[in-house]
Design brief:
- The protein folds into 2 domains: 375 residues, no CATH class; 111 residues, STAS domain (Transcription Regulator spoIIAA, 2-Layer Sandwich).
- The two termini are 58 Å apart.
- Helix content is 61%, strand content 9%.
Length: 506
Amino acid sequence: MRYSLSTIKTEVLCGVTVSLALVPEAISFSFAAGVDPIVGLYTSFIVGLIVAMFGGRPGVISGSAGALAVVVVALVERHGLEYLFATVVLAGFIQLLFGALRLGRFIRLVPHPALLGFINGLSIVIIAAQFKQLKVDEHWLPFSELQVMVPLILATMFICFVLPKITKAVPAALVSILLISGIVIGFDINTRTVGDMADIAGSLPVFHIPHININFDLISIILPFAFIVALVGAIENLLLLNMVSDMTEGKTNTQHEMYALGLSNVANGFFGGMGGCGSIGQTMINVSSGARHRLSGMLAASLLMVYVLVGSHLIEMIPVAALVGVMFAVMIRTFVWSSFKLIGKVPLADAMVMLIVTVVTVMTDIATAVIIGSIVSALAFAWKSAQRIHIKDEYIDESGYKVYQLEGPLFFGSSQRFKELFHAVEDPKDVIIDFAHTKVIDQSGIHAIDSLAERYMKYNKQLHLRHLSPDCSSLLSKASRRFVEPNESEDPHYGLVIDYPAKTVI
């Protein structure tokens, strides 16, 4: 693909901005996972580069992730780094399996309220994580330091909010980082810098096979961690794909994303990384600054390694307040504030899903939140659909048959309600159920018809099914051995009338 000069400029500036913001994030998540900061930097480089090159959607930034750090910290404490590397390799292979099985396509089943909850929950998590930069050993920094950092954070946020209204020629996040850094360095302001967090100087990652004995005990230890890492990483990346697609109106390839993420984590484990996935904060910085191509993500990851190799002394001079301010500003914009207005306007079930996913994302992890939200949405949908089945009309035809015109889906959720609609004792000898406006969806629907037929048989009455669509007819026929041949003359439109004189054998 050929880039115009304007596109290249935008992609380069976005890449530089993201690379600067990746540094403190990688260091913080390394501390959270209980590993050396260089491990987090290697992770952001490897995952960021591979996913940017081969992922399912340009613009998505991947790297070290807090959601994964909190998963693996217990493993590192109990068994050490070698087990961590083995876990990451296995997680990568699991994600490759997700790609081969095309499991990524099922992300479309995640309802929109759950997506809003995911965005809001992660925004809260990332904002809360920034306060850790104002602490040392779980204690707040001295007031003398805070009274310097807080104004710098507010100044950074002010630039991020105001500059885009004046010009979008350069990313506001980059301008704010450079300007605040210049002020701190120029006026020799004593404030916490990246260098105070950790020394980021290092060398290129080296290929390393984990020094462990492969046996059943090993698998029993690392498999649960690997599966959680794979699942959380996959869900976060796939949800980010949806977010970026909505923002940029582009198409995504979930299978490519799973392959890229899996490959990156396999490489991660063999080159000393701790496992990574999509980063909502860096992705929002990238996309909101105008990036639409793979160049920005590739450049951000590459620059990260340049900083490690030759530019550490410059990056370590950047004030932490500038980077915290950028993340505050970006995530405040990312939070879907309009969701509060939706609470009173959307169905109660949708509002509950949004709130549940938000809270569970903050309290546990993304995978758990999305799974719970999807289950609640599915149950709410099933309940609503179950209420739709009813008798549209009923009458006695010229042959003396009682005809019930049914409307609504017949499935597990509505099967009990379906049976309660009919009165076998009061009905005449022959009863027709007209399915022109309904559909038999599953085996529970078949069983409901089966049970109803048996009820009518007890009173020596016969049940007939009319106007079944071809797929409903096929479903019923496969489950039964005792259907009467269709009478097409009675049912010219659908070509099917089924007399149901006996219990279906299931």
